[in-house]
Design a protein that fits this description.
single chain, 188 residues, alpha+beta, three-stranded antiparallel sheet, 3 helices, 9 strands, 27% helix, DUF4189 domain-containing protein
């Protein structure tokens, strides 16, 4: 058993000596990444170093690099299909209906009217707003016996504020959100 252990330690010691010898040999070389023992100018491709007699020696190591190197990055365009949203309202009853995530404006408007009319019980409905890749909200205010509806179509988080602003700017009292913000955005 001790013989095997001694043999193992002896081979390990020899291996370590060999590795140390290789490491010292590599460390003694004066090697540079570009192969130039002195100053290397990457723009001109010239290597400059001091020769044995003390004078400066220069030679061309590589073809000159262009200072206005063009980027070879390829641009890849990805077509993301648009999504449409429409809002329809019966102006007499104030009942509304909408359509989300439709592939075309026409499809969104048709579905919004169909949803609003509820099989004819709430006809006729009219599209008051549509949006492509955005959001819609509606605010309603009363002028006497008549209600007025204002839509906001914009980026997410802003449609309700826009609808209220339009309602208040028209001078209509008692403005309130009647259709909360809904969005139809492309899926990436």
């Amino acid at each position: 058993m001790f013989g095997q252990l001694f043999l193992y330690l002896e081979t390990k010691e020899k291996l370590m000596k060999k590795l140390l010898f290789i490491f010292l040999g590599l460390a003694s070389f004066n090697v540079y990444a570009n192969g130039c023992p002195g100053q290397f100018d990457p723009v001109s491709g010239i290597c400059r170093f001091q020769g044995n007699n003390g004078e400066m020696v220069q030679y061309n190591m590589a073809p000159p690099q262009s200072s206005n190197v063009q980027n070879n990055t390829k641009v890849i365009n990805i077509n993301v299909p648009s999504k449409y949203l429409a809002l329809a309202v019966n102006l007499k009853t104030g009942i509304s209906g909408g359509a989300l995530d439709m592939d075309s404006r026409a499809a969104a408007e048709k579905e919004a009217i169909k949803t609003c009319e509820r099989g004819g019980s709430n006809a006729p409905c009219k599209v008051i707003a549509w949006v492509r890749n955005g959001c819609i909200a509606a605010a309603q205010g009363k002028e006497g016996k008549q209600s007025r509806i204002f839509s906001g179509t914009t980026k997410p988080g802003r449609a309700e504020a826009e609808a209220l602003r339009k309602c208040q700017a028209a001078g209509v009292p008692q403005c309130k959100i009647v259709v909360s913000e809904a969005c139809s955005l492309p899926r990436y």
